[in-house]
Amino acid sequence: MDKMWAGRFEKALDKMADDFNSSIHFDKKMYKQDIRGSLEHASMLCAVGILTAEELGLITEGLTSILDDLNNGVLTFDDNAEDIHMFVEAELTKRIGDAGKKLHTARSRNDQVALDLRLYMRDEARDIVALLRKLISSLLNQAKENKKTIMPGYTHLQRAQPITFAHHLLAYCMMLLRDITRIEDAIRRMNYSPLGSCALAGTTYPTDRDMVAKALGFDGVCMNSIDGVSDRDYCIELESAFATVMMHLSRLSEEIILWSSWEFKFVELDDAYTTGSSIMPQKKNPDMAELVRGKTGRVYGDLMATLTMLKGIPLAYNKDMQEDKESIFDATETVKKCLEVFVPMIATMKPIPENMYNAAKRGFINATDLADYLTKRGLPFRTAYKIVGTIVGKCVKENKTLDELTIEEYKKYSDIFDTDLYDEISLESCVGKRISKGSTGYTSVEEQIAYVEEQLK
User: Fold this and answer.
1) Catalytic member of 23, 41, 156, 250
2) Is 273 helix (H, G, I), strand (E, B) or coil?
3) Considering only CA atoms, which of 315, 326, 321 is closest in space to residue 114?
């Protein structure tokens, strides 16, 4: 394929250099956005008198036929094309003749690729938001079914205080809701059209940039043409948001991996989302969760690659910026694949409430409530804390739980203790007494569920 820019050169590009320079093998993902942008650009050129109605008709018919043929597999991409823009333009010219050569009037590949990437990432980011909403719904359904399922809450991976499984899952709902707002914020800042910036300085033609921007669903145009072609902030913002999504998925993956182990056995993963061992027939491995945890580093790397690529290049466009696509495409595809497998994995996960409850009974996670019992009866908290700490030490030595000590044993440490302490330190009471907003208390958990439902609306 002849290069569109070949007029200046006396010899052909070296084959190895040509392959190195080409981006068609990855930027072909944007063919729908490239053709959509070209259709609206052509409509605008006709509206301002640069193209005739007949030429617009030919271009529209040609581009539409290319889109249909690519969608149907009738037309395949030419690996000899330098990029998706050159491929479409060359194919269009082949189909409709000289009218196809007029399509590139008043634009450059610099603003064309900037447009395609914004359109592509807007579509992909919205898909990811939809997947996040599905994951939140899966977590929310599990929470609704486990509002009174008591489990140990942890700090330092040590049993700390009793909570409900619903409360724990709702924490991830809150994280993922924030992820949605981060992505939506990035989309809002990204949603301005660079088309018409041309190479960097704009054009001498009487174009209507606002017309194209409106037709493509943008909120306006990039107000500085240099910034229009050189801005990739939106890639960094989206990759950063995607990295945060992956961090949240990785944390939940780690917990699922722990919970599904024999040491915890708080949940059972569906067979469809686990694998076995080639030599150990008893194994049921949480490979999907482990892969998500592993792929988190990959998305972090994509973010760092883009930041590093951009940090040293002067304005405006530089060929370095071709490297933005592979990293942003990889981050996008990785997040989507992880979410696609995570949603049904969570939906089919089976909690084992009795194991959670039995674990909560060990580890003295009601010790804080025992100290609160003394504090409410007049003892300073630090004094109560020391007394309870001493009692816990006794229980550890004698392999007992707090509710197994007799009232006579308790009174050796303080006359304030009475038989009502047993009700105070029951796991159900410890959870139910948490009345502060956002707590693990039953009423609070209901409020959190209602909040997440409202956010999803």
Assistant:
1) 156
2) helix
3) 321
pLDDT at 457 over 60: yes
What's the pLDDT score for residue 5?
Answer: 46
* Residue whose structure tokens are 């140990």: 152
Alpha carbon distance 346, 140 (integer Å): 10
Q: What is the pLDDT of residue 358?
A: 93
Q: Tell me how crowded residue 1 is: count the other CB atoms within 10 A of its CB.
A: 12
CATH classification (class only), 6-105: mainly alpha
* Mean pLDDT on 203-230: 98
Pick the CATH number of 110-189+223-358 from 1.20.200.10, 3.40.50.150, 1.10.275.10, 3.40.50.2000: 1.20.200.10
Is 230 considered catalytic here?
no
- What's 363-449's CATH class? mainly alpha
* Terminal CA-CA length for the chain: 51
Give the three-class secondary structure for 440.
coil
pTM comes to 0.92
Report d(CA 335, CA 128) in Å as an integer: 8
- H/E stretch holding 350 reads strand 350-351
In the annotation, is 41 catalytic? no
Choose the catalytic residue: 277, 426, 439, 444: 277
One DSSP character per residue, 132-185 reads HHHHHHHHHHHHHHTTT-EEEEEETTEEEEEEEHHHHHHHHHHHHHHHHHHHHH
Numbered ranges of CATH 1.10.275.10 in the chain: 6-105
* Tokens standing for residue 405: 């000590």
Q: What's the pLDDT band for 279 if we cut at 50, 70, 90? A: confident
Q: What is the pLDDT of residues 163-200, one digit of tens each?
A: 999 999 999 999 999 999 999 999 999 999 999 999 99
Model pLDDT for residues 407-429, shown as the tens digit of each residue? 999 999 999 999 999 999 999 99
Residue partners of 51: CB distance under 8 A and separation at least 6? 42, 45, 59, 102, 105
The alpha carbon torsion through 162, 166, 167, 168 (nearest 10 deg) reads 80
Q: Please check whether residue 229 is in contact with residue 199, taking contact to mean a CB–CB distance below 8 angstroms.
A: yes
Residue 155 CB: number of other CB atoms within 10 A? Answer: 8
352, 267 contact by CB (below 8 A): yes
Separation of alpha carbons 387 and 390, rounded Å: 5
Per-residue b/e over 3-29, b at no fewer than 16 CB within 10 Å? eeeeeeeeeebeeeeeeeebbbeebbb
- DSSP letter for 221, please: B
